[in-house]
Amino acid sequence: MELVKRPRRIRGKETLRRMVRETRMDKSSLIYPMFVVEGTGIKEEIPSMPGQYRCSVDCLSRELETVLQAGVDKVMLFGIPDHKDEAGSGAYDENGIVQKALREAKKNFPELYLITDVCMCEYTSHGHCGVLRGDYVDNDPTLELLARTALSHVQAGADMVAPSDMMDGRVAAIRQKLDERGFVEVPIMSYAVKYASSFYGPFRDAAESAPAFGDRKSYQMDYHNRKEGLKEALLDVEEGADIIMVKPAMSYLDIVREVADTVNLPVAAYSVSGEYAMVKAAASKGWIEEDKIVCEMAASVYRAGAGIYLTYFAKELAGYMDEGRIG
Asked: Distance between CA 28 and CA 14 in Å, rounded?
């Protein structure tokens, strides 16, 4: 048999396979999410997310040091306050938990790039992502609180803010507030395409942010919808977003690809808590090889078109990249 085209010719050796690899990634694209709580001397493992912790500010430095040692220089901070109220006032308090963590991290690790999640759900007594009018999340009054929160984060040392609330117009409100105060250089990474997903369960356990009633389907997106995701992404581009995020990652790679093909901005994807928990649970039973699954999941996200990857496996992935197992 005379075959001219033999695709296997470029698969024969690892050196060759790496040379012709279509999807490439490196540690500079990784962001590691972290949870910060009030109190002192606290480092408590999150039951539904083995290997992930809630840390008090005084314990944060040790954790950040391990992140940097792994080769990851970007983190996203989520705050868990002691006090919650109807208006989520802890979110924009200059002495709030995230604000304190930012100042501590910036002082001890100036080389670290600090990103903050901007939302209300961890701070409201009802667990929704904005202020309520009856049982309905009132969009427009929430915008001012989100903008105040973003500003307070930047004033405390955040290098980037990432609104995750899914209120209409929040990117424009935050951009205007930051620009008015002279922070025109601070970028916004928008959770532009955020679906109402069952993959968020462990995060809500970690951040104590489950809604007290109802659900978030009136503001997070219906997972049946594709065109709506593109509309949301394009709206946030118009409003001044600098990076567009799709969340979750694993079940939404088709959306990642379409967004990457549509917008003229960098695209991020967030591999969320449920994805992490499933891998950990299956690996603990010996049903999968965790390291190989983690690498394969990451490659699928980059292959789909994302250039930025938020993942609780960031430290491990950085190590696998050093070893040449992925990247």
From this structure: 24
